[in-house]
């Protein structure tokens, strides 16, 4: 079956505009670049197979990615614990000063560990907001009431801050 050229062009435009952002979000959520790439790609495959763009492709893609992540998370169980050992290597650091690199790596490890204390929904809300999604887009992606997104993000932010500060205090 040959696809409509208009759809093909629109799909390419959405892919070029949204793939990197979707990948970054999923990578931060799962902590594994290979899994994040698979999930982001599978989300776009499903969009392509759909044959038409939804009203809000950005929210649709995040919703599909969240569902794929939940499925992968269920299959792998305690994956997050296994990946913590690799967390320091997940982000590229361009600093040439070893002390700065060490401090940056420690901050990243604490951020990942603090994030892991939150529920998956709280993690998703914070990461989507950090990635620039609007409250409406977050509500759609998480199947959550738009009016409650602000409170969800606020509560998740406070929980994250408490968890992070506890780690900093414990290491002092």
Defining key terms:
single chain, 172 residues, mainly alpha, Butyryl-CoA Dehydrogenase, subunit A, domain 3, 8 helices, globular
Describe, in plain words, how this protein is organized in 3D.
This protein is mainly α and 172 residues long. It has one domain (5-171): PhyR, sigma-like (SL) domain (Butyryl-CoA Dehydrogenase, subunit A, domain 3), CATH 1.20.140. The protein contains eight helices and no strands. It has helices spanning 5-30, 33-50, 57-76, 79-84, 98-116, 120-130, 135-142, 146-171. It is globular, with a radius of gyration of 18 Å. Residues 78-91 have low confidence and may be disordered.
Number of helices: 8
User: How many β-strands, per DSSP?
Assistant: 0
In helices, the fraction of residues equals over 70%
Q: State the name of the first-level CATH class.
A: Mainly Alpha
